[in-house]
Amino acid sequence: MQTTPTATEPATPADICSAPARRHPRPDGQDRYTISEVVAFTGLTAHTLRWYERIGLMPHVDRSHTGQRRYSNRDLDWLDFVTKLRLTGMPVADMVRYAELVREGENTYDERRALLESTRRDVLTRVAELRDTLAVLDRKISFYATEGNTR
Amino acid sequence: MQTTPTATEPATPADICSAPARRHPRPDGQDRYTISEVVAFTGLTAHTLRWYERIGLMPHVDRSHTGQRRYSNRDLDWLDFVTKLRLTGMPVADMVRYAELVREGENTYDERRALLESTRRDVLTRVAELRDTLAVLDRKISFYATEGNTR
DNA sequence: GGCTTGCTTGGAGTGCACTCCAAGGTCATA
DNA sequence: TATGACCTTGGAGTGCACTCCAAGCAAGCC
Predict the structure, then answer these.
(1) pTM of the shown model
(2) What is the mean pLDDT of residues B111-140?
(3) Is the dihedral of CA A105, A63, A18, A28 positive or negative?
(4) What digits encode the pLDDT tens for the residues B93-125?
(5) B33 vs A34, A150, B37, B62, CA distance in Å?
(6) Strand D nucleotides within a 7 Å radius of protein CB atoms
(7) Nearest-CB residue to B137 (from A110, A123, A140)
């Protein structure tokens, strides 16, 4: 899963001074975060995080001795990646498929690469479409800006 | 509504030789298309076209003497634009708002421009996000391509 | 005239991605 | 040890953007 020990930026400071130093930013923590800390990091809701786990999009999250979730930096990396995939418009089902491949081990490298390459193509198409749209928007905007100096 | 008489490319030829010359490609037709012709043009379904009209996303489509829809080139231009907006991820409600402004006339130019400019900003953000994602994908893909020469 | 194909409507149904709820257990601080 | 914020679960609910359905009218062809 080629997880690099990514040092992320301080992220949203949120209410860092109201509570007794809730230890928000990722870098200075150890490797066990509560669900609400992960919420603060990723911008996902707790509901969504639990849901991701239910549908098999998260590789088993560790638990405290009382059964509460404790996310690792590795989990956070995974969530970052999933978030990126999500905003390409990739369906959750496909992401689950990828997660399965990761669980299955190294002999799925080929299929994983194929999946990512297909996603890559989709992204390129999407970018091209957006550029097109941008051109249309610019034409309309400049029309409204010049012609539309009403009042 | 600054509708330019856009001459579009031949689009999908479809089953142009099976039926008695169904007059598919836009350019050579006059200004009245049936719903199924519009389906062939836009790739939208008839359901969606009727739904767009119901929710106020279409500026009143003309009807035949028996009440069937007859779309004009102007309508087709509008649909092209709507389709572009749609794939920026703009919510349909916002597009309806824009359609309302168009119906209200020239004194809404300012608001229309503001709406399009905000959309434009969204598109730029989106493109930047996609570029980011592309970088991540490329890293992973090249990892799988080199490291992953299993078998 | 009969058949097929296409169009009409209001309203109900679908699929996706969350999003929320109730009921209860846990944790940190005063 | 009590208070209040936080966490747990399964299952139900939500919002968006379609998508489909049934019932019926209309047009073109044999």
Answers:
(1) 0.78
(2) 94
(3) negative
(4) 999 999 999 999 999 999 999 999 999 999 999
(5) 59, 35, 6, 10
(6) 6-10, 16-21, 25-27, 29
(7) A123
